[in-house]
# Entry
Amino acid sequence: MGNNKRINKIMSKEKSANTSSIVSKVWAFCQTLRDDGVGYGDYLEQLTYLLFLKMADEYTKPPHNRKMPIPAEYAWETLIDKSGTELESHYNVMLRELAREKGILGQIFIKSQNKIQDPAKLYKLIALINAENWILMGVKDKGDIYEGLLEKNAEDTKSGAGQYFTPRPLIKAMVECLRPEPQKTIADPACGTGGFFLAAYDWLVDNRDLDKEDKRFLKYETFFGNEIVASTRRLALMNLFLHNIGDIDSDNFISPNDSLITDSGTRYDYILANPPFGKKSSMTFTNQDGEQEKEDLTYNRQDFWVTTSNKQLNFVQHIRTMLKTTGMAAVVLPDNVLFEGGVGETVRKKLLETTDLHTILRLPTGIFYANGVKANVLFFDGKPSSKDPWTKETWVYDYRTNIHHTLKKNPLKLTDLKDFISLYKPENRNKRKETYNAETNPEGRWRKFSYEEIIARDKTSLDITWLKDKSLADLDNLPDPDVLALEIVENIEASLDSFRAIIASLK
# Structure
């Protein structure tokens, strides 16, 4: 037995070293292409197309011997025997034709373009991918390579990809609080690159004793999402596929449709989401004079409490509709949803009445790739119709006041949220205990508020804080200069974004 363990350990180390080597190669080539003006996003897309074709080819060979939906003239092997302009021309035709195919194949290649202008570098990338057996590589290894690239892409502020990337430690904490059960559905109406799905999948695999049917359901029937940006949706489909969710020839479970347009009628057990930042929904059209104009987009839905062009308020209403009466939701929302008057107050009151809004996690700045974002996680449970409000008390955890994070020097880690998860009591929320006490612990971050207390607040505001900002009272407690400078920059950029939105609305 001892020998077997040692052998397994050695093999595991070798496998890990091999994966690290592949990661290094993938990264190194990405840097090479960046010198040619190919950004992370463009590189990711090309990697997606080629990886998909290579893995499809591997599935056609022993021991799998599966029939794949890829036409023979555009199979992987048609790429590896070409070079120069012949390769470039064939690759361009291949991308265009595969986009016309049905199912997940067509969805992966929809609106695809060759962004690698140098045929020699395209040849090298194909050779790099061809040298490995990707199916034999562990799910975690493949997934880690791809997730790493997605995160790098999010860091590239010029690409704007950060808006689709929620910090993974935050996602994991949200999933840990919800603790999904097997054979239950999980939805995200604005799923980006699929981060919430991956975290939920990993948690179920690691923490639930899954039988054969549970595993089948998890792979094919658990996850449902929407993503309207074609390039982001493509990355999501590939990301899930590499993490063993769905299959190369299975039905597609990420819709390209705007989820807010209509109520699909389907209800879900869990909803995990971080709807897009930015308050207004709008559409751009060309007027009679040939000029581009923007028009606020409102959604006239009978299931909505209010009609508004505020994107986040619409998502809150939509998520409430999507949720089963026995369902659970965890949603990242900006501060304005918590305090905005008018329709905002109506939405908050209705949410308190029709769901059990039991928990709010106040998040610090400096954890999102979008600048100056002040956000929160709202946890609420679906409930059947009732004349009495379902929310009896709301617990607030303030992880913002006197907390300083930066993306580079002090990024958010899962361990930072362990205290919140512990106090949340996912196993039994009835056993919660406040850490706040006006006399003995006024600095306690965990405090409950009754429904009556919240309703009595101005505009039914959920923007609740009680801790003193130490930096305002004590100059010795100021954050490090670089953190302070970053916060100033973030605040200025957030203000500029607000002014731009005002100007845009006046046009």
Observations:
- The longest helix spans residues 2-34.
- The two ends are 75 Å apart (CA to CA).
